[in-house]
Amino acid sequence: MSDATADGVSVESDRPTILGHPRGLVILFFAEMWERFSYYGMRGLLILYLTWHFLFESDFSLTLYGAYVALVYLGPLLGGYLADKYIGFRKAVTFGAILLVIGHGLMGFHGPKASEAIVIDGTSYELTRMEYDESQSRNIVVDGAEVPILTFEQPEKGSDIRNISYETDGGTVTATGTIERVQSPLYSTILFLALAFIVAGVGFLKPNISTCVGALYEEGDRRRDAGFTIYYMGINLGSFLAGIFCAIAAATLGWWAGFGLAAVGMLAGLIVFVIGQDWLEGRAEPPADVDLKTPVVAGINREWLVYLSGFAFVIVAFFLLQIAGIMSLAMHGVFAVVTTGIVIYMLAKLEPVARDKMIGLLILIVSSVLFWALFDQGPSSLNLFAAAHVTNEIGGWEFPAPVLQSANPLFIIIFAPIIAALWTFLGKRGKEPNAFFKFGLAMVQIGAGFYVLNLGIAGASEGADGTIKISVIFIVLMYLLHTTGEVFLSPVGLSAVTKLSVKTIVGFMMGFWFLASSYANVIAAQVARATQVPEGAPAQQSIDAYSAVYAQLGTAAVALGIVLLVASPWLRKLTHGADGSGPKERRGEVDAAGVTLDRSPD
């Protein structure tokens, strides 16, 4: 039975609730909190793990990281489609969680650190360094004794040559040799396999668990907005906690502990979801008209064919990650071809009003590529920057560099509701900015964030130990501006897709949004590579390289932002009245309350 509210909205009254919401919300809150704990805990460590444990060159590590996140953004296209058409959201989430437990668990099996030696005049000398050491100091083993290396310089990026110096009883020794690094084939394979399982797991879980939240509420139920807000608070709570605890575990106990904690978090999420499935009350089941159990191919039924396709995706991702550079190059062509195809379609097939709307949407989506390419420097180049050039201390507490990744979810929890309330306040008075104006403000803010960081760099000086570090306050302020920029921009994206797309290709344009997010991470990796200098370069050369690239990024973002702000009155005309505040969404996840709280791929 149901009761009608005062405004006529029908809401079920005989279903069990907790704090006024369907019981299933509690299950989804904790399941997704732990899933985000695992995802962001691992992601915050990944770039440092690749460069410090496997001793991959920074260029390769950043390219691999970019390819990994690009695939993470593409995965939900497959997982969402298979859930919609065949297995339903509950089964998709469960399967995705299982894949993620496997992936995160494999990350904990990293084996011994890659070996490193330098060959000088035909003699090989072992090099040693700590597993987790943000200073990355080395020792050279001479006559069985470990001797600290004073200088360790690579003439140019990509070179195997190293110029080193170290002290002996006979004085300072300088030498030039060839570096040799050997990674374990077994554990390198485990690394790529782990990342592939995570890619596939996110693809099945992420787009479907949010849909489960919506399925808990009847159409028009006024509790839906608050339900999504509660759910997204869980997402960012998990992200915030992961940034602190996984980073500290890795720094103090070892990589296995950081990744292992992420795996435990994902396992907790799976257990919570499986135990609490009954509380979903059958609202995330497969489509009623789909027969999942009858064998269709070689005695295999449709349900298991879906699961096998998931494992096939793992295999594809496994191989793509090993050719990350080629994949990144291919993404340029794919994005260009798809964008060109959309333009041709608009010109050839659409009448003027529909064409104008699609042009406006295309401007927003293409602009978002720059924003996300800059925003996603956080877990890549900015993570490396924090380790090398930020005084990681607050109130006497020294913390590992990846802890700073927790700033973004913390700021979202604090400021997203405030900004959402601002839009509501302005909307009631007919003064809420249009989508193009919001995009412009977002671009200015993310650009200003890099300017703030460069202010800190400009005032930094070399310390007695040869390092150059800026106060942590500058990177925290930068993350604050990046976060407010995200909240200004990301709720607009998919909402614009639903409002401005031609109805017959809304699904395709949704896919194009995902493709743009994926492509942005390829660009982000290339940008991050530009910040890197030859290994062992002086601190001044290193920080100057970061400063130069971040200045260019800031200028590009502010310039595009100003263009969008100035042109927004004319650009809004392209929407023919379709633009408005509307439901707020975040790259694949609808937050009906207008609060954008997840920064993840969807």
From TrEMBL:
<dbReference type="InterPro" id="IPR000109">
    <property type="entry name" value="POT_fam"/>
</dbReference>
<protein>
    <submittedName>
        <fullName>MFS transporter</fullName>
    </submittedName>
</protein>
<dbReference type="InterPro" id="IPR018456">
    <property type="entry name" value="PTR2_symporter_CS"/>
</dbReference>
<feature type="transmembrane region" description="Helical">
    <location>
        <begin position="548"/>
        <end position="567"/>
    </location>
</feature>
<feature type="transmembrane region" description="Helical">
    <location>
        <begin position="62"/>
        <end position="83"/>
    </location>
</feature>
<feature type="transmembrane region" description="Helical">
    <location>
        <begin position="329"/>
        <end position="347"/>
    </location>
</feature>
<feature type="transmembrane region" description="Helical">
    <location>
        <begin position="304"/>
        <end position="323"/>
    </location>
</feature>
<dbReference type="InterPro" id="IPR036259">
    <property type="entry name" value="MFS_trans_sf"/>
</dbReference>
<dbReference type="InterPro" id="IPR005279">
    <property type="entry name" value="Dipep/tripep_permease"/>
</dbReference>
<feature type="transmembrane region" description="Helical">
    <location>
        <begin position="37"/>
        <end position="56"/>
    </location>
</feature>
<dbReference type="Pfam" id="PF00854">
    <property type="entry name" value="PTR2"/>
</dbReference>
<feature type="transmembrane region" description="Helical">
    <location>
        <begin position="359"/>
        <end position="375"/>
    </location>
</feature>
<feature type="transmembrane region" description="Helical">
    <location>
        <begin position="470"/>
        <end position="494"/>
    </location>
</feature>
<keyword id="KW-0472">Membrane</keyword>
<dbReference type="GO" id="GO:1904680">
    <property type="term" value="F:peptide transmembrane transporter activity"/>
</dbReference>
<keyword id="KW-0571">Peptide transport</keyword>
<feature type="region of interest" description="Disordered">
    <location>
        <begin position="577"/>
        <end position="602"/>
    </location>
</feature>
<keyword id="KW-1133">Transmembrane helix</keyword>
<feature type="transmembrane region" description="Helical">
    <location>
        <begin position="506"/>
        <end position="528"/>
    </location>
</feature>
<feature type="transmembrane region" description="Helical">
    <location>
        <begin position="439"/>
        <end position="458"/>
    </location>
</feature>
<dbReference type="GO" id="GO:0016020">
    <property type="term" value="C:membrane"/>
</dbReference>
<keyword id="KW-0653">Protein transport</keyword>
<comment type="similarity">
    <text>Belongs to the major facilitator superfamily. Proton-dependent oligopeptide transporter (POT/PTR) (TC 2.A.17) family.</text>
</comment>
<keyword id="KW-0812">Transmembrane</keyword>
<feature type="transmembrane region" description="Helical">
    <location>
        <begin position="186"/>
        <end position="205"/>
    </location>
</feature>
<feature type="transmembrane region" description="Helical">
    <location>
        <begin position="407"/>
        <end position="427"/>
    </location>
</feature>
<dbReference type="GO" id="GO:0006857">
    <property type="term" value="P:oligopeptide transport"/>
</dbReference>
<keyword id="KW-0813">Transport</keyword>
<feature type="transmembrane region" description="Helical">
    <location>
        <begin position="92"/>
        <end position="109"/>
    </location>
</feature>
<feature type="transmembrane region" description="Helical">
    <location>
        <begin position="256"/>
        <end position="275"/>
    </location>
</feature>
<feature type="transmembrane region" description="Helical">
    <location>
        <begin position="226"/>
        <end position="250"/>
    </location>
</feature>
